[in-house]
Design goal:
- The strands form two sheets. This protein has a two-stranded antiparallel ribbon with strand order 1-4. Strands 2-3 form a two-stranded antiparallel ribbon.
- It folds into two domains: about 45 residues, no CATH class; about 50 residues, no CATH class.
- A hairpin with a 4-residue loop joins strand 2 and strand 3.
- With about 110 residues, it is α+β, with helices and mostly antiparallel strands.
């Protein structure tokens, strides 16, 4: 089954043809949806470019923060960016989650 068909399955997704990022905010449904989200494929046929795509996402987020000077975060400090393992890029468990404040709404 292709990802296109699976992502448009009404049994797996509520209103699959509608762009709704808020559907991921409900923690009780999130684990169910993550199993059905196969943007990069799964198993031995997974996309080889997945790591490159995720790396590009980090570059884009960094670029956004450099371009827009008035973006703020919710108590995220430099200590929260320290890595436990520099090879695998794991942050310490007590690190604050990274969240962005919309300056127009605050």
């Amino acid at each position: 089954m292709s990802a296109w068909i699976l992502h448009r399955d009404p049994e797996s997704w509520e209103s699959p043809e509608t762009f709704d990022p808020n559907r991921w905010l409900d923690p009780s449904k999130r684990a169910y949806m993550e199993k059905r989200m196969v943007s990069f494929g799964r198993g031995s046929r997974a996309c080889l470019g997945q790591n490159l795509a995720m790396c590009e996402m980090f570059v884009v987020v960094g670029t956004i923060f450099r371009k827009f000077e008035n973006l703020q975060n919710y108590g995220f400090t430099a200590a929260d960016m320290e890595y436990v393992d520099h090879f695998s890029a794991f942050r310490r468990k007590a690190a604050a989650p990274f969240q962005v404040i919309d300056p127009l709404k605050s």
